[in-house]
């Protein structure tokens, strides 16, 4: 696999190769979307671990694409309970968290990146529900979102550490 000095897939590499990587991890997100963490909103699942992993292993764009599409799959499976516009906003937000995860990992290491990403996704993302149900909705979903964030980020970080030490990426 051809990589640039930043670790991203080489943009000059075959576009088919990049699409194949993204497709495989989107499929993993779809599987993760079926594994739910019980919550008031019903959209917290294991869909974001593949996106977080892709951000670390392959690059910002791959991670953003996988995590955003993964969120839309999770939400779509149960009928977009928060409405399509809000789920699109959350998908963009998830892409931002994947970007941040990789950037922070490059600057400060995997542990710091994992902690900050769990806080961004578990705490800050909870405030998205303020628009629907005020602080009650924020406080009501935060513990569930924190657990889901922790599980997804840890899974991605552990997988990345295992795969990167094997020199497969």
Q: What would the keywords be for this entry?
A:
single chain, 169 residues, mainly alpha, Arp2/3 complex 21 kDa subunit ARPC3, 6 helices, globular, disordered N terminus
What does this structure look like?
- With 169 residues, this protein is an all-alpha fold.
- It has a single domain, classed as Arp2/3 complex 21 kDa subunit ARPC3 (Orthogonal Bundle).
- It has six helices and no strands.
Short description:
The protein has 169 residues and is an all-alpha fold.
Q: What's the domain count?
A: 1
Report the span from N to C terminus. 8 Å
Percent of sequence in beta strands? under 5%
Structural class: mainly alpha
Please tally the β strands and state the result: 0
Question: Portion of residues in helices?
Answer: over 70%
What is the chain-wise order of helices and strands? Answer: HHHHHH
CATH class: Mainly Alpha
The main sheet comes to: none
The dominant shape is globular
- Average pLDDT number: 88
Low-confidence stretches: 1-6
Gyration radius, rounded: 15 Å
What name is given to the CATH topology? Answer: Arp2/3 complex 21 kDa subunit ARPC3
What is the annotated CATH architecture?
Answer: Orthogonal Bundle
Give the SSE map.
Layout: H1 15-33, H2 49-57, H3 60-77, H4 84-108, H5 110-122, H6 130-165
